[in-house]
């Protein structure tokens, strides 16, 4: 979904390699879910697809809602 939106001109927000690593580190082991579906290209960050395949952890917005809200407050 992110790729389709970004190709239409949106700016990636918390969708990079480092963001993914930070988000997965915050998830307790018993809350980790595997990714589903086929891997998609991440042209905005070439390292992201590789690390997502290697870690195989899904990150949902709810897991980082505090970071997202802080970002919005600071805008």
Describe the protein in words.
This protein is an all-alpha fold. Helices cover 47% and strands 0% of the residues. The protein starts with a helix and ends with a helix.
Order of helices and strands, N to C? HHHH
Tally the structural domains.
1
Total number of β-strand segments? 0
Evaluate the radius of gyration: 13 Å
Strand content: under 5%
Mean of the pLDDT scores? 90
Q: Which structural class should the secondary elements be placed in?
A: mainly alpha
Number of helices: 4
Shape: globular
| Largest sheet geometry | none
Distance between the termini: 24 Å
- Uncertain parts: none
- Percent of residues in helical segments? 40-55%
What is the topological layout?
Elements: H1 2-6, H2 17-26, H3 46-55, H4 65-74
Compact description:
This protein has helices at residues 2-6, 17-26, 46-55, 65-74.
Key terms:
4 helices, 0% strand, globular, single chain, 75 residues, mainly alpha
């Amino acid at each position: 979904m992110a790729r389709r939106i970004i190709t239409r001109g949106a700016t990636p927000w918390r969708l990079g390699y480092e963001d993914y690593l930070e988000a997965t580190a915050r998830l307790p082991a018993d809350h980790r879910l595997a990714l589903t579906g086929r891997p998609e290209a991440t042209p905005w960050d070439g390292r992201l697809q590789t690390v997502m395949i290697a870690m195989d952890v899904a990150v949902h917005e709810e897991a980082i809602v505090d970071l997202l809200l802080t970002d919005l407050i600071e805008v």
